[in-house]
Amino acid sequence: MRATNVFNDLVGRVADRGRNLMGTTAPRNMAQMCDTLLTGKGEATGLALARAIFDRYDGMGLADRHAFFTMLRDRFGVDRARTETVLKQWQDGDETKLRDLHTASEPRSQELIRRLNRAPGGTRRLVAMRHDLLQLMDDDRTLTPLDADFRHLFGSWFNRGFLELQRIDWHTPANVLEKIIRYEAVHEISGWDDLRRRVAAPDRRLYAFFHPALGDDPLIFVEVALTADIPGDIGGILAADRAMTDTAKAQTAVFYSISNCQAGLRGISFGNFLIKQVVEELGREWPNLTTFVTLSPVPGLRRWALAHRDELPKYLSDTVAAAEDGSRPVALSDLTAHYMLTSRHPRGGATDPVARFHLGNGARLERINRDADASANGQTASWGVMVNYLYDLDTIERNHEAYSTMGEIIAAPPVRRLLKTR
Amino acid sequence: MRATNVFNDLVGRVADRGRNLMGTTAPRNMAQMCDTLLTGKGEATGLALARAIFDRYDGMGLADRHAFFTMLRDRFGVDRARTETVLKQWQDGDETKLRDLHTASEPRSQELIRRLNRAPGGTRRLVAMRHDLLQLMDDDRTLTPLDADFRHLFGSWFNRGFLELQRIDWHTPANVLEKIIRYEAVHEISGWDDLRRRVAAPDRRLYAFFHPALGDDPLIFVEVALTADIPGDIGGILAADRAMTDTAKAQTAVFYSISNCQAGLRGISFGNFLIKQVVEELGREWPNLTTFVTLSPVPGLRRWALAHRDELPKYLSDTVAAAEDGSRPVALSDLTAHYMLTSRHPRGGATDPVARFHLGNGARLERINRDADASANGQTASWGVMVNYLYDLDTIERNHEAYSTMGEIIAAPPVRRLLKTR
Amino acid sequence: MRATNVFNDLVGRVADRGRNLMGTTAPRNMAQMCDTLLTGKGEATGLALARAIFDRYDGMGLADRHAFFTMLRDRFGVDRARTETVLKQWQDGDETKLRDLHTASEPRSQELIRRLNRAPGGTRRLVAMRHDLLQLMDDDRTLTPLDADFRHLFGSWFNRGFLELQRIDWHTPANVLEKIIRYEAVHEISGWDDLRRRVAAPDRRLYAFFHPALGDDPLIFVEVALTADIPGDIGGILAADRAMTDTAKAQTAVFYSISNCQAGLRGISFGNFLIKQVVEELGREWPNLTTFVTLSPVPGLRRWALAHRDELPKYLSDTVAAAEDGSRPVALSDLTAHYMLTSRHPRGGATDPVARFHLGNGARLERINRDADASANGQTASWGVMVNYLYDLDTIERNHEAYSTMGEIIAAPPVRRLLKTR
Amino acid sequence: MRATNVFNDLVGRVADRGRNLMGTTAPRNMAQMCDTLLTGKGEATGLALARAIFDRYDGMGLADRHAFFTMLRDRFGVDRARTETVLKQWQDGDETKLRDLHTASEPRSQELIRRLNRAPGGTRRLVAMRHDLLQLMDDDRTLTPLDADFRHLFGSWFNRGFLELQRIDWHTPANVLEKIIRYEAVHEISGWDDLRRRVAAPDRRLYAFFHPALGDDPLIFVEVALTADIPGDIGGILAADRAMTDTAKAQTAVFYSISNCQAGLRGISFGNFLIKQVVEELGREWPNLTTFVTLSPVPGLRRWALAHRDELPKYLSDTVAAAEDGSRPVALSDLTAHYMLTSRHPRGGATDPVARFHLGNGARLERINRDADASANGQTASWGVMVNYLYDLDTIERNHEAYSTMGEIIAAPPVRRLLKTR
Predict the structure, then answer these.
(1) What is the mean pLDDT of chain B?
(2) Chains touching D by CB (3 or more pairs below 8 Å)
(3) C171 confidence band (pLDDT: 50, 70, 90)
(4) If phi over 0 gives left and psi between -120 and 50 gives alpha, with beta otherwise, what is residue C128?
(5) Residues D41, C156: C-beta atoms closer than 8 Å
(6) CATH for A296-419?
(7) Residues in contact with A363: Cβ distance below 8 Å, sequence separation at least 6, in sequence order
(8) Residue D200: its chain B contacts at CB < 8 A?
(9) CB atoms within 10 A of CB A181
(10) Any coiled-coil ranges, and where (chains A, B, C, D) (predicted)?
(11) B chain contacts of residue A14, beta-carbon cutoff 8 Å
């Protein structure tokens, strides 16, 4: 990492030199700068230009950034003339031109992004740029086509083959640990003592994916607890005064938190790969582990129940109604089973987003736990219910197949039986 | 690197597991396997399939590999139906579909290659695969469209932003040094003693670009000698018994050999970036360096002179004719200047391939050296002539511009004057 | 470090094997075990025995440890017979026996300690052992001769030539940083945020000495602040909301805290080497630094003033008397100057222990600062006075010479003048 | 290592500064310089002086070095007056002075060596110094007492607890591998290809001990071959075209070469520790290994047989006589057994030096191999005989005990039976 920095620094100086050269002919504005970067072929000017574009971007407020993205979308879209030329050749009967059509119709913004990436720290800066873009898209969906370019390139650059799994522990440099504290998105890490419990205790593990171009900034991480049995509540996992599990006897590994770290990489999926690789890693180190489960939130339960109250079986509808005073529904497990097993997302699959992720990975809904999350968050989202998804390497492929092709929600029999209670 | 290996190993085992799962339903042949990889979404099966495809490929002879590539080209080309659908929408007036046209017309082989890349060591295996493809293309140009997919993805993955410059010296692991010996393509390294002279002498340097996915296998390297003056012959640089240059007084850095290491990355250009970064690195370490030049072969001189003898000025035509007995032309410097400055490649730029590279980088043709290369190779190609190209950071941009837009060959006045001799 | 651990582990297993072998013939008690370790020559048994002795020691309470040390002192003292034999030979006229006398009279405990050191983690365990010994010596000075053996060997093993200077910063592993927090003995580090300010701010540095046998456990560290001028109070250095110093303009480096980390290495001196090496390191990185000073406590001032009140010049005696109500003496600077410049330790040199350290290193007493330390500690020890010692590489040797041979206290003229005030 | 170098460099500069300070008062000659180093307490001067002494030493020829060592021996011997004072106190009845006698009689050269060790690279330079001393001692045994000081301190500094085992393979830096080639003392490594076979083949290993103060310069290394059975000749181990052993099935690990690397550390023993640790390491990696043996030369056989011909049983005496024409003795195995089992060194133990080493470690003489070493060396020393010593962790302790206390040569029954043949 150090060596990289030295040379990034050097590249920086190449860029500086280029910038000086650029002095007199420097483009007046970002649009011109981008034009030059895209059409020019000089490397010194190229790196300098890329860096100058990033620097100018960093100095902008959000409104200017919005204008910048709009400009990129409009000015660096598909080369229509070139596309039409190739199209005509193809339609005139030259079959070889079908492939050329793809090349000809590549939005020019893609090559622009590739050239920006050459600058020192380019990847990192592009990820930050897309973070802004995603935020702006909340109000302006017309930027979606531009985002598609970022997403396409990031998907290629952050290919699983380029990721490195690393264990995070108490020997990890503090600057990385500090990021873990900041990035934890599910069960907040309250400080260094809490962190120490999660990474340094013998019955706890934390693994992260890194990408060479982002250095020591992780992409995603998962926190693991070794336990005797499948746990039914998160409080017992996180408590400072919990009993330590004897790892030599532990049979269960619990993935109790998965956090994506890079907002600018939204939609580029790593979690599936991460979990499965960690399952392998743990199994290698402790061959006595037999069970790999999550302890997961059910973020959509309460909102769904209230929205669909009238469509529920009467006893569930009643239980939801009775809970309108803020109390917990009585038949909460049945209600959860109903939500997980019967409701469907408009685009297919389970309604619950966390369920979609794990079921899509081939995991099985293993258990529903009441009183599992006493936090305000947990109460608000799901009246404190959490669930376990089971990762069984021998069945994930079959499960995945059944889920993705037939839409079947794979669940353990006891969960299934909750559906038939009345 | 070690950590990566451990986890590659793990991924290997995930893949093994996937392969076992695959057992009963394993596709009968490569086409089916590729179909499944491309359409399936399961990760365990995915990695296993990718690996199985590579393994099966490795077991094939060249004829089968040819058939495999032909199959890829034909079966995983552009999705014509999807393209036509989008095309129609666009032609029906939906302007937003212009960008979709690009996505729709992406050859399916591109996504297939991306999925192959996820396997352990995938990038390395894809580079090896393309190496075969390039060789087969010598006799079968119909594979060119498939190669365009490899080239496009490699260009994106081996973006300069992902490369790391490293110095190679006598503290470098032997397995890397062994590769340097093997990859040196210009001035053969005769063994470990010769290598030691090139990397361990105080007045010698060797720098290489690496890519994280290829581990300790370099992409390209450049060899540098520090000298008092611009050297006129390669023998003096390589001699085992040469005098050492006092690096505190050296004013000149000579790039006397540049070797690309990965045949499978042909056409993905790194040399330009490498030279400029090394110029910066050297300038930082030895601020007294004022001159950065190459000592380069002129591989096309003799062939060109013989082929164009009749079009030359008479005294040059005579000198070439006189040399038909195997002797060297008398007016060799004039002849070289004529070749470099007046001849043009059909696609523009200089005729000589090495000249095209350096002039395209913005270097200047600085000097013509007779009796510069006593090797059989050097005699055969250019009657022993070598030239120096000068890299001056303050003018490379202007030179590059003049060369690439106007086709102007930038040369030092003394070289220019050779043209006017008679 | 990792590699070392692997092999420590292996050695551990060799030791285990040895222990098994030992099974039937294992010495009944520690004295016998030590006898066997010292006389036996078997390596497997040797490592196992050494480890067994350490393990048994770890299981003991303080009283048993006291008995253990007493046993070592009495049973593994000098071999009197051997000494007398050699002595007689020498006194009989064999001059060559004078050197043998040294060998013959070596306390057997020294070789015993050397053999204990061979065990995995031996050095670390011996350092812990001496820590106990030093504590027991508070009440039992008869153990001093045994401690002389530890001290002699530690002095040899922790020779400056074996120490490694390392910078501690925010990229340092958390387990090392945690030790820094724990070991800071002068100005307590209140937590990770405070630590971060001391190691990660651009105008702060922390350097430590490490020894290979103690791994990542530091021996001593020094904290440095870069400032514009010589600082007059510690609060300004430590404040969370202090202004940052522009390091490009800083002219002063302030050593504001030096902490020894290993209680078991008391009396083995590293501070002198550390400060001077850090001065060089800082000077190399920031050539604009011109001044290297400490900001140091005066721990003995108040006690001395109260004890020697009657011997002071009247105006100082009065000022001390007036301060008996808890207020600060009026003429506090004069009083401090008097303490530093005129009082002498019974064994020579300055009375103040911190002064003895810095003056002995060749530093000069540069300035006396009132209101420099608002902490309860600082008030109690010195009514809040702190002083600066100046490290000037061009004069430290001369200063050191004058101090150590003539007992001269080197002080800046303004400090000297305080003596002459009345 | 890099970090160490940086700081060595710094220390170097502290030393430079000290040297400048020293300018005017620099001692005229080495004796004075050593006096000053020993008595002075200044650190800057101390490092500078130490370095100056080393530098001046390096500039000397062998005769001056001899004079230097003589001076050290005579001028920095035991402080006789101090010794006599303490001696008198002890003889006058102060028992506590017995321990002080040891301290008082320490040759002053020991503390001098310790202070030299503080200089940058001090340990390395002291080891080189002792190398010279050992060579001079060949002709001048009066230097022995001085060597005792070096030996004593080196024994303490190179304590097994400070050594690090490392595997040497093809990923090892070339500068280390180059040293291995140079240091191999038993079976010469003919170049990089030969080295590659010994470190990079799957069925070959090479392990070395390193000491932190010597950086990447090894102390000792052992070469290992994995084989199916106990090998009977070295040619089969070293052959370039040998068949590879399937390591998954190998049952035997053969230590076929052990080389000490540092002539200046002669007499400081590491081999015993190295072999046993490597046995453990190999056993951990390949649990199927059951047999750990050497393939060792018998360097003293031929000389011994010729010298003791007349004392041998007649058939052996005859066989030796018959071999005087240069042919090999007929009953060579019997003769070897007789040599190994019956002859004794004047100071006890086996006569053969290699046998003394392995038997002293607790190994067992396992087999005698005729036609085992076709090299000129092997023929000259032992008519080509080599032997295997077996390291069995379960019996080495007992073997060692029997050998070292009873002088019993432990040998396998078939070897023993050779004694009884006639």
Answers:
(1) 90
(2) B, C
(3) very high
(4) alpha
(5) no
(6) 3.40.630.150
(7) A294, A389, A390, A391, A396, A399, A410
(8) 175
(9) 16
(10) none
(11) 276-277, 280
The DSSP result for C322-380, as a single string, is: HGGGSSPPTTHHHHHHHHHHH-B-TTSSBSSHHHHHHHHTT-EEEEEETT---SHHHHH
Other CB atoms closer than 10 Å to residue C139's CB: what's the count?
Answer: 8
CATH class of C2-157: mainly alpha
Q: What 3-state class would DSSP assign to D116?
A: helix
Residue B193 burial by Cβ neighbours in a 10 Å radius (0-12, 13-18, 19+): exposed
Taken in order D51, D52, D56, D59, is the CA torsion positive or negative?
positive
DSSP string, B169-181: -TTSBHHHHHHHH
ipTM score here?
A: 0.86
Give the gap in angstroms from C-alpha D313 to the nearest C-alpha of chain C: 35
Give the model's pLDDT for residue B25: 38
B375 is catalytic: no
CA angle centred on B308, ends B302 and B314, rounded to 5°: 100
Determine, for residues A175 and C171 on separate chains, whether the beta-carbon distance falls below 8 Å. Answer: yes
What value does the CA radius of gyration of chain A take, rounded to a whole number of Å?
26
Are the C-beta atoms of residues A365 and A340 closer than 8 Å to each other?
yes
Which tokens is B321 given? 């004719």
Question: At A28, is the pLDDT very low, low, confident or very high (cuts 50, 70, 90)?
Answer: low
Compute the radius of gyration of chain C from its Cα atoms: 26
Q: Which helix (H) or strand (E) holds D208?
A: strand D204-210
User: Hey, of A10, A74, A76, A149, which one would you mutate to test binding to chain B, going by the most B CBs within 10 A of its CB?
Assistant: A10
- How distant, in Å, are the alpha carbons of A336, A383, A409 from that of A420? 13, 22, 16
SS3 B199: helix
**D257 catalytic, yes or no?**
no
Is A42's CB within 8 Å of B394's CB? Answer: no
Strands (E), A171-281: 204-210, 220-227, 252-260
Q: How many Å is the maximal CA-CA distance in chain C?
A: 81
* H runs (alpha helix) in B232-331: 234-238, 271-285, 301-307, 314-322
Q: What's the rounded Cα separation, in Å, for the pair C15 and C20? A: 9
CA B369 vs CA B275, B294, D330: distances in Å: 22, 12, 71
Q: pLDDT tens for residues B106-134?
A: 999 999 999 999 999 999 999 999 999 99
Domain ranges in chain D are 2-157, 161-294, 296-419
Q: How many CB pairs under 8 A join B and D?
A: 33
Q: Are B233 and B386 in contact (CB under 8 A)?
A: yes
Give the confidence band of B76 by pLDDT, cuts at 50, 70, 90: very high
pLDDT of C332 above 80: yes
Inter-chain contact D145–C14, Cβ cutoff 8 Å? no
CATH class in words for B161-294:
alpha beta
Instruction: Report CB contact under 8 Å: C174, A172.
Output: yes
Q: Is the Cβ–Cβ distance between D391 and D254 less than 8 Å?
A: no
Both tokens of residue D411?
């040998």
Residue D17 carries which side chain, given as an amino acid letter? R
Are C2-157 and C296-419 the same fold in CATH? no
Distance from the Cα of B419 to chain A's closest Cα (Å) equals: 29
Is the model's pLDDT at B345 over the cut of 50? yes
Asked if B171's CB is within 8 angstroms of D173's CB, the reply is: yes
Among candidates C377, C304, C292, which has minimal Cα distance to C341? Answer: C304
Distance from CA of B309 to the nearest CA of A (A): 35
Structural Rg of chain D based on CA atoms: 26
Q: What is the H or E stretch that residue A280 is in? A: helix A271-285
Beta strand B364-369 with B164-167 is unpaired
* pLDDT tens column, C88-110: 999 999 988 999 999 999 999 99
